[in-house]
From TrEMBL:
GO terms for biological process: one-carbon metabolic process; tetrahydrobiopterin biosynthetic process; tetrahydrofolate biosynthetic process. Its EC number is 3.5.4.16. Keywords: GTP-binding, Hydrolase, Metal-binding, Nucleotide-binding, One-carbon metabolism, Zinc. Pathway: Cofactor biosynthesis; 7,8-dihydroneopterin triphosphate biosynthesis; 7,8-dihydroneopterin triphosphate from GTP: step 1/1. The lineage of its organism: Bacteria, Pseudomonadati, Pseudomonadota, Gammaproteobacteria, Chromatiales. This is GTP cyclohydrolase 1. InterPro entries: GTP-CH-I_C/QueF, GTP-CH-I_N, GTP_CycHdrlase_I, GTP_CycHdrlase_I_CS, GTP_CycHdrlase_I_dom. Residues 35-208 form the GTP cyclohydrolase I domain. The gene is folE.
Length: 212
């Protein structure tokens, strides 16, 4: 039985690539996860052996590994790879970073946009790394508020900024597809650190960048 590729094969340099492709129809990716999915399919009254579902356990196992790949990644590693000394004193804002995460209560997706600002302290970070840090924490089982805090804390700690601000706006499918079934409500969460926390004008300037 072919063994599952080690995560080190697909996680490198703090980045995750969904690179595993089975070489033939019957290849097994992760026997434990695939068996769990097969049992779930049976429990909901499906036939895991029917044509359309035969490879579903493998696909779900791969999808779950990707959607939770943030556990294998380190925000510190992502940030440290691309810090540049720059004499920049003004606020840097990366806005509208789309993200997908999964709520830890129902394991259903929530998704939306993150807006991240920081006040540099002699160093700037590669812009793509800000978006990667969002993914490091989004690709885990989460609650939106913790996700927002984790992004802010990681940037504050590893970038050594004067301050960091994170605002996230998301739709929760656990509130849309089931339960209370509200299709149009969105949740906004924020985390303010350093200057953004203590200086109302800095916070207002950041919020101003979010309104177009
Ligand atoms: N604060 C917060 N709550 C969340 C998040 N994602 C899901 N939830 C909520 O977690 C709560 C779990 O409540 P429970 O009563 O234990 O679960 P439930 O019976 O499935 O609740 P309903 O969704 O109201 O049907 C629900 O109110 C969800 O809306 C999140 O990111 N942040």
């Amino acid at each position: 039985m072919p063994s599952k590729p080690k995560l080190s094969r697909v996680v490198s340099d703090g980045h995750y690539a969904d690179s595993f492709e089975p070489e033939h129809e019957d290849e097994i990716y992760d026997p434990v996860k695939e068996d769990l999915v097969r049992r779930m399919l049976s429990e909901i009254g499906e036939d895991p052996q029917r044509e359309g579902l035969r490879r579903t356990p493998l696909r779900v196992a791969k999808a779950m590994d990707f959607l939770t790949s943030g556990y294998q990644l380190s925000a510190e590693e992502v940030i440290r790879k691309a810090i540049f000394e720059e004499d920049v004193k003004e606020m840097v804002v990366v806005r509208d970073i789309e993200f997908y995460s999964m709520c830890e209560h129902h394991m259903l997706p929530f998704f939306g946009h993150a807006h991240v600002g920081y006040l540099p302290n002699g160093k700037v970070v590669g812009l793509s790394k800000v978006a990667r840090v969002v993914d490091v924490f989004a690709r885990r089982l989460q609650v939106q508020e913790r996700l927002t805090n984790q992004v802010a804390d990681a940037l504050m700690q590893h970038l050594g900024a004067h301050g960091v601000a994170v605002v996230m706006e998301a739709s929760h499918t656990c509130m849309m597809m089931r339960g209370v079934q509200k299709q149009n409500s969105t949740t906004v969460s924020s985390a303010m650190r350093g200057t953004f926390e203590v200086d109302q004008r800095t916070r207002a300037e950041f919020m101003g960048f979010l309104h177009r």
